[in-house]
Design brief:
Arc Repressor Mutant, subunit A; mainly alpha; about 180 residues; 2 domains
């Protein structure tokens, strides 16, 4: 079943919509949540919560990309659970990925303010559009999906050392770009 039909089922308030969404994107959401949480049962719970939240969000929302809409909800759920679970602990993969990016973005002001975050997000989107496809895929895999470097290497067919070096170069390009845009 295609995404537009699944969205129509949500608008019809058919419970079949949840089943179809889960069948189509549940495994991807599970992987994204598990990458962040490193706990399968917590990830599964986040996916279930995300299905419920999607049910509540559609309607009124009519997402352009059902996959992106659902995965974004799942990712946010996993991040909330991660913060709750690890108030004083560190989850190496996720924290290391964020630490790598933090070096590019700097530690100025209050980045949690909505306006600043939106401007920064738009700048990063523009930056990503100019990258080669494989570099963009690696960046999103690492810093949005929280994939570990070995998984990215396997998915791209590159050696882990090559992935690490390219991510380092992408972060440096991002740092230069954000300085040029006067965002850091």
């Amino acid at each position: 079943m295609d995404d537009s039909r699944i969205i129509d089922l949500f608008f019809e308030r058919s419970e079949q919509a949840i089943k179809e969404l889960s069948d189509r994107y549940g495994k991807l959401a599970q992987v994204v949540c598990a990458n962040i949480l490193k706990n399968e049962s917590d990830a599964e719970e986040c996916v279930n919560d995300s299905l419920f939240n999607t049910w509540n969000a559609i309607p009124p929302a009519r997402p352009v990309s059902l996959c992106a809409f659902f995965i974004d909800i799942a990712r946010k759920k996993a991040l909330d659970r991660y913060r709750y679970n690890s108030a004083a602990r560190r989850n190496s993969n996720f924290d290391v990925a964020l630490d790598e990016l933090e070096e590019c973005l700097g530690r100025q002001g209050t980045p949690s303010e909505e306006c600043e975050a939106k401007v920064l997000t738009e700048a990063i989107d523009r930056f990503l559009k100019d990258l080669k496809k494989q570099d963009r895929v690696m960046f999103v895999s690492r810093y949005y999906l929280s994939d570990p470097i070995p998984v990215i290497a396997q998915n791209t067919g590159l050696k882990e050392s090559v992935v690490s070096v390219r991510l380092c170069r992408i972060r440096e390009k991002l740092r230069i770009y954000l300085r040029k845009e006067k965002l850091i």
